[in-house]
Amino acid sequence: MPSPEPAGALLLCRAEAATVGPAAQLLRERMLLVGAGREWSVLVPEGKPWLAATDSGGEPVDRVLGGWAGALAVGAPWPVLALWWDADRSGFTLASGFRRPVGYVWLANGTPVGEDEAMRTFAARLGLDPVHDVQSLHALTEADTAADARARLLGLLAVLTRTGLELPAGLTPGEPADRLREVARVQADAETVEWSGWRDAVHAELDVVENTGVGPWMRGPRARCLAAAQLAAGVPLTLHGLRRRSGGWLTAGALLLGHGALGLAYDRIRAARD
Q1: 225-257 b/e with 16+ CB inside 10 Å = b?
Q2: How would you class 197 by CB atoms within 10 Å of its CB: exposed for 0-12, middle for 13-18, buried for 19 or more?
Q3: Residue 268 or 3, more confident
Q4: Which of 113, 86, 48, 75 is nearest to 205 (CA)?
Q5: pLDDT digits (tens, 9 = 90+) for 53-89
């Protein structure tokens, strides 16, 4: 019987699946998308190339997931929380817009190796209770011989249940990647997200914009300036990713380019219709 894959990951998005799916296409990674409670969705990586790379000495899982989370969040009005783990460590990365990502790490035995300030920033960006929730998060940064890395991530998720997060049974940090995929596939609302080309991806994003009432915010001089800024930022990030052969940076650059192009396209399409 093969040994469990040591690395695994979940991408938690604070948005409905109908909104997350089109954005996730631009990651160009095959994923399973499932609802995860009120105003939350979860993406489960289905393809294995990224996992093989982390196991064979390529980019570590935290860097890959951090790149994905940042790429998703940079062009979306909702935050993305990446949970990741491997044989030696576990942790999270929270990405929100253009702000610097915040994260925390625990060794496999649960020893905290992050900074306490990260938890306070994490709570503030997700709008958590500054007293009770922060106290619960602070407990995860203290020594506890009875809590391993998996228990730390479960403790983090317990705090997030107060925001409406409810992961389907079996989608649990620390589980082998194959097990996560199996659980996600059998969910009634599961859908596969995969790259289908720029034209389909942009049309899907435009449909979401129209159906969620975000459209008015994507028109006018300010919206065009933001789209141009996303394009300008995406080019050097993409080149940096190509030079370093970094999937995370390459994906972030591609997402910026995609969202910038979407912003300009939407403004022009609506102007033509009007």
Answers
A1: ebbeebbebbeebbeebeeeebbbbbbbbbbbb
A2: exposed
A3: 268
A4: 75
A5: 555 556 788 888 888 898 888 767 899 999 999 889 9
DSSP notation for the chain: -PPPPS-EEEEEESS-HHHHHHHHHTT-S-EEEEE-BTT-EEEEE--SHHHHHHHTTSS-HHHHHHHHHHHHHHTSSS-EEEEEE-SSEEEEEEE-TTSPPEEEEEETT--B-S-HHHHHHHHHHTT--TTHHHHHHHHTTS--TT--HHHHHHHHHHHHGGGTB-PPTT--TTS-HHHHHHHHHTSTT-EEE----HHHHHHHHHHHHHHHT-GGGG-SHHHHHHHHHHHHHHHHHHHHHHHHT-HHHHHHHHHHHHHHHHHHHHHHHHHHH-
What pLDDT is stored for residue 246 in this prediction? 54
Q: What's at 5, amino acid-wise?
A: E
- Pair 49, 23: CB distance under 8 Å: no
Q: Per residue in 77-131, pLDDT tens?
A: 899 999 999 889 999 999 997 788 999 999 999 999 988 899 999 999 999 999 9
Q: Strand 102-107: give its sheet, edge to edge.
A: 102-107, 89-95, 80-85, 8-13, 41-45, 31-35, 191-193
Residues 255-260 have a mean pLDDT of 64
Residue 123 tokens, joined:
């709570």
CA atoms within 13 A on the CB side of 9: 28
